[in-house]
């Protein structure tokens, strides 16, 4: 008997789908060893059918449902969805950049305090603004006074210093550039990149640290 036919006939025998003549014909074709194994298997299955059925504990159902419960969206997914809803904030991200940018940041316009006979300077530090796009995140506004700039971007450890994502500031008048985005609680280093070349720290940051290249980075801590 071919293997495939034997397997099919064996399964029908074990499922008790054969009539007595078919069972006798199958057993007659088997060797003594095969016949003994098949009979023993059928007897074992019959014994299992008579075992008492123990109801599953209620905790099992809860555990199974917890295991198949949809997972909370990742920070990357929430970031992508938030950016899609706010296209005017000037974010430019590549696919790889977006996958790595799981932190949210934000900046807010700073007030101007023109000095007598001197240029206008941004006079207030980073401030929280009323915008909460996701759990455990705050909206911040960063601003930079740079009247001669053609472009200003925010870079920091939250976006790979511009290698993963670039946050563009927009001119808000009087030489001030600013942008607002959400940032989870944490401590971050950042700087401004003016005209794509000049590294500028935030003079009004709460703290400054020097990086490995001797540049001053601003520090902001969100609690």
TrEMBL record:
InterPro entries recorded: Glyco_hydro_13_N, Ig-like_fold, Ig_E-set
Record-level Gene Ontology MF annotations: hydrolase activity, hydrolyzing O-glycosyl compounds
GO BP: carbohydrate metabolic process
SUPFAM superfamilies: E set domains
Domain Glycoside hydrolase family 13 N-terminal: residue ranges: 138-205
Gene3D superfamilies given in the database record: Immunoglobulins (2.60.40.10)
Name of this protein: Glycoside hydrolase family 13 N-terminal domain-containing protein
Origin species: Sulfuriferula plumbiphila
